[in-house]
């Protein structure tokens, strides 16, 4: 320490110590001014919190199950068709007092005459329908409904139902058709009248409930479900429910909805001319193994002039064959 080198070394040491002390004091002063402790890592910064209101229930993937006989989670069997399911809560956490999350704005109400669940074209025109040409969409002219192809949903109801501008033997919903179907029916009935054939509408649109009543009457009348299935569609499986089908007869009432109607000039006229107006005879003789129904020369289905004419020219007798779908002889 008495040597010059020792003095110089000791002086350097004192300078470094002073610098460290000044830095530490400055850090403590800044911490005191900010109100934060020296250790800034807190439980909030290191723990991921979970808001109880964000727990919206469970799914099968995370262990949620339904008791045998119960409705699926969040859906009440008492919900009416077209209504929002009962029993869905925005909060299902363990804390019953936790605040619920804000509910989203409700969807706009469905259009009159609609179940609110169809996804068909908003307009009935060539452009709209060309975008929805599908055998599955109940709003499409090309929808195929048979014993293996129910409507979705089963209680589907079309929009745009209007009273058909034709001679009718029925009133109420049975006198209604989809607007495009009704317009074509008016032209067809007028053309038939010009040829001396006075057609009459015997049945048009049928709702799910109406088809249920119709089917049950056939079960009672024929004595079994198996026999009823040969002549009547179950509810949710009927073309009448789409608003695209109608049953025709003659003004005199001769052979109405009977096999003998096939021998009348009206049935012959329909077989030869219905395609010009976009209609086909849906259930023809010899095709029970494909359509699942006995012949109905009175049952006409609207599919549009283009497809109806193509089927006529190519000698195709069923929609199943035309669209390359499998036969549907039974449910």
Give an overview of the whole structure:
The protein is of the alpha+beta class. It is 32% helix and 9% strand. Strands 3-4-6-5 form a four-stranded antiparallel beta sheet. A two-stranded antiparallel ribbon has the order 1-2. The radius of gyration is 37 Å and the shape is globular. Residues 1-11, 16-125 and 127-131 have low confidence and may be disordered.
Number of helices: 10
Instruction: Report the CATH architecture of the domain at 145-322.
Output: 2-Layer Sandwich
Tell me the CATH topology of the domain at 145-322.
Muramoyl-pentapeptide Carboxypeptidase, domain 2
Q: Tally of extended strands?
A: 6
Strand order in the sheet with the most strands: 3-4-6-5
Low-confidence stretches: 1-11, 16-125, 127-131
Question: What is the element layout, followed by pairings?
Answer:
Elements: H1 4-34, H2 43-46, H3 126-131, E1 161-163, E2 176-178, H4 179-194, E3 199-203, H5 208-222, H6 225-231, E4 245-250, H7 265-273, E5 279-283, H8 288-291, E6 296-302, H9 305-314, H10 319-322
Antiparallel strand pairs: 1-2, 3-4, 4-6, 5-6
Helix pairs in contact: 5-6
